[in-house]
Specification:
The structure holds two protein chains of two kinds.
Chain A (H helix, E strand, L loop, with lengths): L21 E6 L7 H13 L3 E6 L13 H4 L10 H11 L2 E7 L7 H8 L5 E8 L2 E6 L6 E7 L5 H17 L5 E6 L5 H13 L1
Parallel strand pairs in A: 1-2, 1-3, 3-6, 6-7
Antiparallel strand pairs in A: 4-5
Chain B lengths: L4 E6 L9 H14 L4 E6 H4 L3 H13 L2 E7 L7 H13 L7 E7 L9 H14 L2 E8 L9 H13 L7 E3 L5 H19 L13
Parallel strand pairs in B: 1-2, 1-3, 3-4, 4-5, 5-6
Helix pairs in contact in B: 1-6
Classes of the chains: A alpha/beta, B alpha/beta.
Chain lengths: 204, 208
């Protein structure tokens, strides 16, 4: 068997071709409802050798988007509001994997997560393009993150889960992400297995 | 006979009197006014900005029998302050078992189908809080290209007044999407010139 040098980024006990990725976890919980899911997610990312930055959005000052389009036509690429929303948008632009963690809220994401997502539009270009047969905005950055959506429900709800997964896919399409995976967990779920499967799905 | 009350929640950051959401929602509200509804408008962002306005808004929602939410599509869903308000309505179950609910939503893309997920979220909200979901109207092209917005949206108001399900409205722009994209891209450049953009429209300030 030929000797191969470990690549930079290989971790002990992991195959050499596993690439270390920088994951950004946007924690949209309003209280402690996502605590166990977050712990499992962090473990799954660490087990796969990835680095993770977690932003607890409820602790950040992020004003609502004003809908002024200043981030497209006045200061292109940067929101005109100078608060934590800019830092979150910067982290999103630089990460390899973007993870939504949120209580599933009417099938969508929580207001805590949404306040950050609304301020993500500077990361898109104002110019339109045809993507998958419909109109979207062009990407601003050459790199676009892979996408994980992890929703938390207090009890199983098939319809809420369906809407949530569709929403994550639509959001990923907006940024023309090449890989997306989404899951919804309840207190009865195997968190370790679910989060490991999500990480694997976008890493491969 | 008790006077019926309808409340328009305007979910655009630009507010009442300055937004497309107000203009479109008002078409529906005016149809209800013509059918003897008492009507009122509230701006969601202003409501969520002040504890006093918030409590007053919850009282207004609790006192009405019809709520129309009119808003722009933000990232395939509602603007964050709208979700925050709906979360609090659900926590307190305001109007549960009584309020009838409809949505008027418009997006900046030519295709109205972008609004489908937001409509599904509105329906889920109604189901979870115990409101009656009447259906909604979805418009593409920021709702500015429908030949006659009144003709498109007035039937929505009529259906609500009659206690019926809202007729399905999905109004895309009445010309090819490629033309919308082409003209839109020209307009962005013009607006940037007018605004004195500080850098190229394709700048990548966060590239690591």
């Amino acid at each position: 068997m030929p000797f191969t040098e470990p690549r930079v980024g290989a971790t002990p006990g992991r195959p050499y071709d596993v690439r270390i990725m920088n994951a950004l976890v946007l924690d949209g919980s309003r209280g402690t409802e996502c605590r166990d899911a977050l712990a499992a997610l962090q473990q799954a990312l660490a087990d796969a050798g990835h680095l993770a930055e977690v932003i607890p959005l409820r602790e950040r000052t992020i004003a609502p988007c004003r809908g002024c389009f200043g981030c497209w036509i006045k200061t292109p690429g940067e929101c005109v509001i100078d608060d934590d929303g800019r830092a979150v948008a910067r982290s999103i632009a630089r990460c390899d994997v973007l993870v939504y963690l949120t209580p599933v809220t009417f099938g969508g994401v929580s207001s805590e997560l949404k306040k950050a997502l609304d301020r993500m539009i500077p990361n898109l270009s104002p110019f339109f393009a045809r993507v998958c047969g419909e109109t979207h905005h062009q990407r601003r950055y050459r790199k676009t993150p892979r996408w994980i959506g992890l929703g938390v429900l207090s009890q199983p709800d098939c319809e809420a889960e369906r809407v949530f997964k569709t929403l994550v896919e639509r959001n990923a399409l907006n940024l023309q992400s090449e890989r997306v995976a989404a899951a919804v967990v309840t207190p009865a779920s195997d968190l370790a297995a679910t989060t490991a499967a999500l990480v694997k799905a976008v890493a491969e | 006979m008790t006077q019926r009350k309808a409340l328009l929640l305007v979910g655009s950051p630009r507010g009442i009197g300055h937004s497309t959401s107000d203009r479109l929602g008002s078409v529906v509200l005016d149809a209800l006014k013509g059918r003897s509804f008492d009507t009122e408008k509230l701006h969601v962002h202003a409501v969520m900005d002040s504890p006093a306005a918030f409590e007053s808004a919850l009282a207004a929602i609790g006192a009405c029998d019809t709520v129309i939410l009119s808003l722009p599509l933000y990232v395939d869903s509602f603007p964050a302050p709208v979700i925050a308000l709906l979360e609090r309505i659900a926590e307190r179950r305001v109007g549960a078992g009584r309020v009838r609910f409809s949505l008027v939503i418009q997006c900046g893309f030519p295709e109205a189908k972008h609004n489908a997920t937001a409509l599904a979220i509105a329906e889920r909200f109604a189901s979870e809080v115990g409101w009656e979901w009447l259906g909604g109207a979805a418009l593409g092209g920021t709702g500015g290209f429908a030949k006659d917005v009144g003709a498109v949206l007035a039937p929505v108001g009529e259906a609500i007044a009659d206690g019926k399900t809202v007729p399905e409205v999905a109004s895309s722009v009445p010309f090819p999407a490629w033309l919308y994209r082409f003209v839109g891209n020209v307009m962005w450049r013009r607006q940037a010139k007018k605004q004195g953009a500080t850098r190229s429209l394709r700048a990548r300030p966060y590239e690591g």
